[in-house]
Design a protein that fits this description.
With 304 residues, this protein is of the alpha/beta class. It is built from twelve helices and 14 strands.
Length: 304
């Protein structure tokens, strides 16, 4: 399993050990706040975090038993669960909310594009393809009276979208933070395509295998409680400066960018109602074969 680095774990006798796997980013920030501020220790946990370069490794890392708990985007969790892989969600991460968007379609500052219909016939970049970003953008264009079949998508990593826009290789890009803020000198925000999914829904979460969760129910509950405590702390604006300083250590994003960008809002409970919108959207646009009840994907001790 490839990884950029491993966060320094707190070691103490008597603490339950958890091996966690996550990208270091604002949406996964609660994991790092809980680690840095001793919240995991408070809940009797010794968490070792493998900081990942490649989020696609999250599901296979959990299923293979290489790690106990992992973080990734909600679509990847839903796709794996629907395919029959043995995973269950144990805690929520960042939510997507129209009042505080953290992902956008961006275009060059001098672009003549004005509304979603203007994307017809244009080339757009993002990564990965056939995920929520490009599919939601297609639905967003249709929602506003355009024809999404006239959009051309090419795979461009977020970090390369700025150069692709400047060079004219693409006309627009779907990006997340901090990339949108990093590119603010040469681009402008064009729209929030997740409007086509809903006004509020879970964008990412933490998951494990049913076997590990059932064998370690108390540990799972303490992990979820620690994530929820860190999430509540981070959601308070007065703590943004401190959370930015913590995140900068792990994610290698400069403090100025973190101060300028829209910060993630975190789920303080894991609710099926916040997961269902992306399942239904995925089924509608063939990211999933069919819809299913979100509640079945969430771990309940003893099947409760």
């Amino acid at each position: 399993m490839a990884a950029a680095e491993t966060a320094r774990p707190i070691r103490a006798q008597g603490l339950a050990k958890i091996r966690a796997f996550a990208q270091a980013s604002d949406p996964s920030g609660a994991l790092y706040y809980a680690q840095d501020m001793g919240i995991f220790t408070k809940h009797g946990l010794d968490v070792t975090i493998t900081v990942a370069n490649d989020s696609s490794l999250a599901v296979p890392s959990v299923v293979s038993g290489t790690v106990d708990v992992a973080y990734t985007n909600i679509a990847s969790i839903e796709q794996a669960f629907h395919k029959g892989l043995p995973i269950v969600m144990v805690a929520g991460a960042a939510v997507n909310d129209y009042r505080n968007p953290t992902n956008w379609i961006i275009v060059p500052k001098d672009s003549p594009l004005k509304n979603p219909r203007d994307l017809e016939g244009k080339t757009l970049g993002t990564a990965p393809l056939r995920a929520l970003g490009d599919i939601a953008t297609n639905a967003w264009v249709d929602l506003h009276g355009g024809d999404s079949t006239k959009l051309k998508w090419v795979e461009v990593p977020y970090i390369a979208c700025g150069a692709a826009l400047q060079q004219g290789r693409i006309d627009a890009a779907f990006v997340i933070e901090p990339y949108a803020t990093n590119l603010r000198a040469t681009t402008r925000k064009f729209g929030w395509p997740y409007e086509a999914i809903g006004k509020h829904f879970l964008g990412a979460g933490y998951f494990t295998t049913p076997a590990w969760a059932n064998a370690n129910t108390d540990v799972v509950q303490r992990f979820a409680a620690a994530i929820e405590e860190a999430s509540g702390w981070a959601n308070r604006i007065r703590n943004h400066q401190r959370s930015a300083a913590i995140l900068a250590k792990y994610a290698h994003v400069d403090a100025d960018t973190l101060a300028e960008m829209s910060r993630a809002v975190y789920a303080e409970t894991l609710a099926a109602a916040d997961v269902q919108p992306t399942i239904d959207f995925g089924a509608r646009f063939k990211i999933l074969d069919a819809s299913f009840p979100a509640a079945g994907m969430i771990f309940r001790p003893n099947g409760s």
